[in-house]
Amino acid sequence: FKFGSLPLPALGPANFEKSYCEPHRNFPVHSRSSFIDCYFRSKEHSVNCTAMADIRPNHTIYINNLNEKTKKDELKKALYAIFSQFGQIIDIMAFKTLRMRGQAHVIFKEISSATNALRAMQGFPFYDKPMRIQFAREDSDVIAKAKGTYVDRPKKHLLAKQAAGEKRKKPVPSRESKKARVDKPAQNRPAAPAVEKVNPPNKILFCTNLPEETTEQMLSLLFNPYPGLKDIRRIPNRPDIAFVEFESEGEATVARNALNNFKITPSQVMHVNYANK
User: Fold this and answer.
1) In angstroms, rounded to a whole number, what is the distance separating the alpha carbons of residues 15 and 270?
2) Cα–Cα distance between 144 and 147 in angstroms, integer?
3) Distance CA 225, CA 221 (A)
4) Of 40, 94, 171, 277, which has the highest C-beta tally within 10 A?
5) Which of 62, 63, 117, 113 is closest to 88 using CA atoms?
6) Global pTM value
7) Which residue ranges does the record assign to the RRM domain (predicted)?
8) Which of 168, 138, 3 is nearest to 62 (CA)?
9) Could you give the residue ranges of the DSSP H alpha helices within the chain?
10) Closest CA to 66 of 124, 4, 6
């Protein structure tokens, strides 16, 4: 085997090194391949591939049953040393979180390299534990980006953590604060929004809250699109109000429904009601 620059004892038990690695260290490539085939046909390291049959070959192999006591950096270097013989490795991912401990992903540039690595290294005694290898269920992000098939995944765990944090931050009202709200004097409570009083319908509309610069021509532009416009009357010294008359009550209602609360300026809203009879 070609183990790179790492010392062999770091990759497995000493008895494996003596009984398998040393006698075959200088074998030609084809002999080493034959040795690998024979080695993994043995009963002790036979593999049931039925569980992997439904996962298509891809660039990434998933390895588990790794020694959980191995440091992350040491693990990645050792994995690179034993898997680089099968082809170019793009990345090795190993994590030390409780959920991902004892697992790793090795991403190859070529699918054929991943396939050969899976077949050859299945059950290999690595840090005193036989590796269990299968193809990853989907392409790694780096491969997906290279293929142009990458889709950003929602980070569910981050969203859940954020939601939990917000929930914790929200103060729980105490019994005293609830009682204080109940006993709060009416004058201190926020007033309910005033309900606009609508006069009985008629054919004359009463416009209020007009800007001082509003002219009759401006009002004409607003109301002219609505059928039946008859007259617009302004009140001397009251630029904020106007009366708009239509031919019929129905036509006045159409215009009122359309223009009530219309923003004449970005900060000023026109109110349109029926005039008092």
Assistant:
1) 92
2) 5
3) 8
4) 94
5) 113
6) 0.39
7) 59-138, 203-277
8) 138
9) 14-16, 22-24, 29-41, 72-83, 111-121, 141-147, 156-169, 175-183, 216-223, 249-259
10) 124
Q: Which residues are 125's β-sheet partners?
A: 130
Q: Could you write out the three-class secondary structure of 65-101?
A: CCCCCCCHHHHHHHHHHHHHHHCCEEEEEECCCCCCC
| Residue with token string 């609360």 | 261
**Which region, left, alpha or beta, applies to residue 206 given φ > 0 means left and ψ of -120 to 50 means alpha?**
beta
What angle, 0 to 180 degrees and rounded to 10, lies between the N-to-C axes of helices 111-121 and 72-83?
Answer: 100
d(CA 107, CA 140): 7
Distances (CA, A) of 139 to 17, 38, 87, 102, 274: 34, 31, 17, 21, 68
Name the token pair of 83. Answer: 């898997």
Distances (CA, A) of 272 to 13, 197, 210, 216: 90, 11, 10, 16
- Which among 185, 180, 65 is positioned nearest to 122, based on CA atoms? 65
DSSP letters for 122-163: TT-EETTEE-EEEE-SS--HHHHHHHT---PPP-HHHHHHHH
Q: Which domains does the chain have, with CATH numbers?
A: 8-147 (3.30.70.330), 204-274 (3.30.70.330)
d(C-alpha 194, C-alpha 197), whole Å: 9
